Amino acid sequence: MKRVITYGTFDLLHYGHINLLRRAKMLGDYLIVALSTDEFNWHDKHKKTYFSYEQRKQLLESIRYVDLVIPEKNWNQKKSDMREYHIDTFVMGDDWKGKFDFLKDEGVDVVYLPRTAEISSSKIKKDLYDANEVTNESKLNHDDLDTNPS
Prior knowledge:
alpha/beta; 5-stranded parallel beta sheet; 5 helices; 5 strands; about 20% strand; elongated
C-alpha cells in the first residue's frame, strides 16, 4: 500500500483544498492529512483560524479522499511522521516548492502540486472583508425575508 501525506491548516475549506486532496490521493492508496492544531497555528504560524481544530478535522474526515487526519503540532514533526506512518510520498502545494526537499533523505518522494490559482482562504477572507467595507451595512438575514409566495 502506497501512503501519501500532506500538511495544512485547511481553514475555510474550499474547492482548492479539495483539488489538492484529490490529486494527493491519486498519488497513492492511503492519504493522511496532518492538520495544524489551533496552538500551532497561533503560536508558530501566527494566524488565527475561523474554525477550531476539531471542526476542521471533522470537515476533512468527511472528504472521501482523506483516510486519516492527524494533528500537526510543530514544524519539526515531519521527519518522524515519515517513519511513524510509513510514508511513501509527501505532498504540498507548489507555493512551498523546495522547502521540504530534506524529506527525500527519509526515503520519500516529495511532490509539490500546483495550487488552484483563483482561490485561497486568504483571498476569501479579503474578498469578504472588502465586500463588507464597500457597503458598510449589514446584509439581510433569514428573519428579514418573506419566502411565502402568496
